[in-house]
Design a protein that fits this description.
Blueprint lengths: L5 H29 L11 H20 L3 H21 L10 H8 L1 H13 L2 H21 L29
Bound molecules: heme C.
The site of heme C has 23 residues, from α2, α4 and α6.
């Protein structure tokens, strides 16, 4: 390339500016891929996890009422797992004077174990008694966490028409 003073200098400035821009662009791509714009893991809120507990609490009652003990035992285990998840992801709850990580072992562990025992014995009368004990433990914790206005109870009807609760399901195929 023929260089005559001024033109050659301009060419050098343009080239070094382009190089700098490319470097900046590469840096921002690298920073973006490992920095703050990475997607955050989704953690359901305590209220959302409680909605699952509400559903399992209702299904547990419906299963036992239909003498479907394997389904009832499944729901007891799901409730247990739900509480384990709550303790792991919400050990404390903003504004609550009582922390879930303390309240759950103290208030829920025994009633839930007693209820599991009633399910394994397939004893409906004992189940009903212990179901009510678990339900009042749920409500006890709602009171302790300043959510006493939120009360749960035995289900009065079946909100799940698309699930078979009876012990011997009809052949659906
Ligand atoms: C750690 C104490 C604790 C225990 C034990 C507990 N809850 Fe809760 N529950 C809460 C708190 C706190 C909230 C409010 C969460 C929020 O929305 O911030 C709540 C909310 C709820 C809600 C309202 C959800 C909604 O959006 O309508 C339901 C239903 C519920 N719980 C059911 C249950 C059931 C059923 C049990 C027992 C099987 C139970 N909870 C046990 C503390 C507890």
């Amino acid at each position: 390339m023929i260089c005559d003073g001024v033109l050659c200098a301009t060419d050098r400035v343009v080239r070094s500016t382009i190089h700098r821009l490319v470097r900046l662009l590469l840096l921002s791509v690298v920073a973006g891929s490992c920095g703050s714009s990475a997607p955050r893991a989704y953690v359901p809120e305590l209220g959302e996890l409680m909605l699952f507990q509400q559903m399992r609490h209702a299904k547990l009652w419906l299963a036992a009422e239909a003498d479907n003990w394997p389904l009832a035992e499944y729901e007891v285990e799901e409730l247990q797992e739900g509480f384990d998840t709550i303790v792991a992801y919400h050990p404390a709850h903003e504004g609550s004077p009582v922390a879930p990580k303390d309240a759950i072992p103290r208030m829920i562990t025994v009633p839930l174990a007693d209820l599991r025992d009633a399910v394994r014995r397939k004893d409906r009368a004992l189940f009903a008694e212990r179901y009510d004990a678990l339900t009042s433990a749920c409500n006890g914790c709602h009171k302790a966490t300043n959510f006493g206005f939120n009360q749960v109870q035995r289900p009065t009807s079946n909100p799940y028409p698309n699930q078979v609760f009876s012990a011997q399901p009809p052949d659906l195929n």
